[in-house]
Design goal:
By secondary structure, the protein is an alpha/beta fold. The protein is built from five helices and eight strands; from the N terminus they run E-H-E-E-E-H-E-H-E-H-E-E-H.
Length: 153
């Protein structure tokens, strides 16, 4: 599952962490901008409240920030490559609830389609890629998916 969400939405729905490719990172923890070491937000908060100083990386002393891609930061190349590999391996690319205007993520459906995959777009509003898709459903995602696979089944 390739996502631009940063809020663990998919993991909370039951998708295993290893199957979620978070293009824009994750807001539930922080990482060091220098060495990439993961830091839990509760620990950083406790440190800040205890000392009044901005916490630094416990590994290298570098700056620590929430593990999301901020405006102006480059996209993580390893994550982008993984998303590309998975996109090229699929035979069906299903877009759920995306306006498909934010790049580079909006390029993955096109990549899949050009590689022979079927493209299905489910979104309340039309997108610029609708004419490119094999099937477009302009509807609410929740009710549609619940009618296909009711909760608890």
């Amino acid at each position: 599952m390739i996502t631009q969400n940063v809020d663990n939405l998919h993991q909370h729905s039951g998708v295993p962490d290893a199957q979620v490719i978070e293009l824009h990172g994750n807001a539930s923890y922080a990482t060091c901008l220098d060495c990439g070491l993961r830091h839990e937000l509760d620990m950083l908060k406790q440190s800040f409240l205890g000392t009044g100083e901005i916490p630094m990386c416990r590994g290298c002393g570098g700056l620590v920030k929430v593990a999301t891609v901020s405006f102006g930061q480059p996209m993580p190349q390893d994550i982008m490559k993984l998303a590309e590999v998975e996109t090229l391996a699929c035979d069906l690319f299903l877009v759920l609830g995306s306006s498909l205007v934010v790049y580079p993520a909006a390029g993955f459906p096109v990549m899949a389609k050009r590689n022979g995959a079927r493209l299905v777009i489910v979104n309340r509003e039309p997108t610029d890629l609708d004419d490119y898709a094999d099937l477009v459903l302009n509807t609410e995602i929740g009710p549609l998916l619940s009618s296909i696979a009711p909760p608890g089944n």
